[in-house]
Amino acid sequence: MTVILDVNGLAKTYTGHGRSVEAVRDLTFQIRKGELVCIVGPSGAGKTTLLRCISGLLDTSGGRISLDGTAVTGPPAGMAVVFQEYGRSLFPWLTVRQNIELPLKEKGLGRSERAAKIDAALEAVGLRDSADAHPWQLSGGMQQRVAIARAVAYEPSVLLMDEPFAAVDAQTRADLEDLVRRLWHQLGVTVLFVTHDIDESVYLGQRVLVLSNRPTVILEDVPVDLPDERDQLGTRSSAAFTEIRTHVYELVQKAKQGHRPGGR
Amino acid sequence: MSVLAIPVDRWRRPALGLLGVVLAAAVVEALPRLGLVDERFLPPFSRMVTGLTEQLALAEFWTALGQTLGGWALGLAIAMIAGVLAGVVIGSVPLLRAITSSTIEFLRPIPSVALIPLVVLIYGSRLPSALILIVYAAFWQVLVQVLYGVADVDPVVRDTARSYRFSRWGVIRSVVWPTTLPYVVTGFRLAAAVALILEITAELIIGVPGLGRSIGVAQSSGAVTETYALVLFVGIIGVAVNGFARAVEKRTLRWHTSVRRDLA
C-alpha cells in the first residue's frame, strides 16, 4: 500500500512573550492509503498541536509533512478536519444542507454535483430528515454528524478527527464510533483519529500511535490485531481487545510518568 | 391555567408600556390645567394633539416631513455604507487596525454639532450641511460596531474555513459578514437614532429645510402649541425608526442566540 501521509521529524516550539515552549520534539510516522490510525496520549501531550501542524493550520518549527507526495505548507486540498467543538465549527447562520454545501462551493463544484454529494453524505450519516434544520436545533451528537457529513462530502484523501467525540454522552459516542468505522469501510477514506480515550483508540484503529508527554515523540506504534468486523459489545469484551487495551494503558501511564524511548 | 397565562404574559409588557404613555400624557394634561405650570409655556396635552391634527392637514407639514426623512435616510445610508466598508477592511487587516485605533478614538468623541460653524461656512443652510453632520455622527457608531463584529469571529470557525481552503473573499462573505451582521444591525439602530437627532439639529440651528426648521419658525413666531405639536411628532418618528430597526434585526438574525429558540 502506498504511503499517503508522511510525517518526518516534525518539531514544534511555541515562542512568544520572551519564552519558548517545546511542544513537539521529533515525530516520525507514516499512514498508508486507506488506513484508520488512532493517536492517543496523555493530556497535554501535544495531540492538538500535532493535528494542527498536519492540517496546515499551524506552522512547524522543523521536519517535513507531506500529503500524497506534496509538502504541506498550508491547509492542503486533500484534507478535511472534524474539530472537537462541533457547536462552534458549524456555521449557525446556515442550515445543515448549506453547511455541507459551502466547502463544496468554495471548491468550485457545480450545483447538481453539490446536491448529489450533499444527499449522499446526509444519507451516510443518517440525517436525511434534518437537512433544512439549523445546527443549533439539533442535539450534540447530530451536530457532530453534520460536521462529519461536511467532511465526507468534501471527499478528502485524508480525514483528520481531533477528539471529535470528547464532548458527547457515552451512548451517542458509541453510535458515532460505529459510524466512523462504517464510513471508513464504505468510502475507503484514510482516517487519522486523535483521542485521549484509550478504549476508543483500540476499538476504532488498525494501529494506535502512543505519544509521550511533552516535548512529544512517539512512544510506540501498537498494531491492533482485531477482526475487521467490530461491535461495541463483542469486541470490547474479547480477550484480544483487553490485552491491547491493557498494553496501551500501560504505555500511557508510562508516558505520564515521563518515560521516553531511548532517552530522547 | 397555563393556557391563560401565556396571553397574559404576552400582553403584559405592551400593556404596561401603553399605561406609561397614558400616564405621561395625563401629567402633561394636568399640570397646566391645575395651574401648576403657565399654559403659555406648556399647553395641555389635548391641545398639543389638536395642534398636531391641524398640522397634518397642511401641505407644508408634509413637505417638511419629506425633507426631514429624505435627509435622514440619505445621511444614514452614506454612514452605513462607509462604516461597514471601512470596518470590514480595517478589522480584517491587523496592521491597519493598529494604525487607525488611536485616530478613531480621538475623532469619535468629537461632537458632530461642533462642526456646525464649519459646515455653515462651506454649505450654508443647504442639505449637504445636514448630511455632513449626520454622516460624521452616525459613521462612528457603525464603524465601531463593525470593528467589534469582525473581531468576534470564532477561532474554530476561522480554522474550519481555512482548513476547507476558503478564498479571502469567501472568508469575508461566508464567515466574517454573517458574524458581523448582528453588530451591523446594532450599529444601524444606534446610527438611525443619532442621524435623526442631527437632522433635526441641522434644521433647527442652521435652517436646513425640514421639520426642525418648522419648529424653529413656530417657536420664534410664538406659536407654542404648534411648536409642541411638532416636537411631539418628531418623537413619534424616533419611536417608529427604532421599531423599524428592531423589525430588521428580527428578520435578519433569526439564527442568532439573541433571537432564536434553541432545542436545549
What does this structure look like?
The complex is a heterodimer of chains A (264) and B (264). Chain A is built from nine helices and ten strands. With 264 residues, chain A is of the alpha/beta class. Chain B has one domain: MetI-like (MetI-like fold, Orthogonal Bundle). Chain A: GO terms for molecular function: ATP binding; ATP hydrolysis activity. Chain A: This is ABC transporter.
Kindly summarize this structure in a few lines.
Chain A has 264 residues and is α/β, with parallel strands linked by helices.
* Oligomer type: heterodimer
- Total strand count of chain B, please? 0
Number of helices of chain B: 10
Q: Give the class of chain B from helix and strand content and strand pairing.
A: mainly alpha
- Note the run of SSEs of chain B as H and E: HHHHHHHHHH
Fraction of residues in H or I helices of chain A: 25-40%
Which class do the helix and strand fractions of chain A yield? alpha/beta
The SSE order of chain A reads EEEHEEEHHHHEHEHEEHH
How far is the first residue's CA from the last residue's CA of chain A?
30 Å
**Anisotropy-based shape of chain A:** globular
Main sheet of chain B?
A: none
CATH topology of chain B: MetI-like fold
State the CATH class of chain B.
Answer: Mainly Alpha
Keywords (chain A): ATP-binding, Nucleotide-binding, Transport
Domain ABC transporter (chain A): 5-238
Protein name (chain A): ABC transporter
Pfam family, one (chain A): ABC_tran
Which terms would index this structure?
heterodimer; A: 264 residues; alpha/beta; ten-stranded mixed β-sheet; 9 helices; 39% helix; 26% strand; B: 264 residues; mainly alpha; MetI-like fold; 80% helix; 0% strand; globular
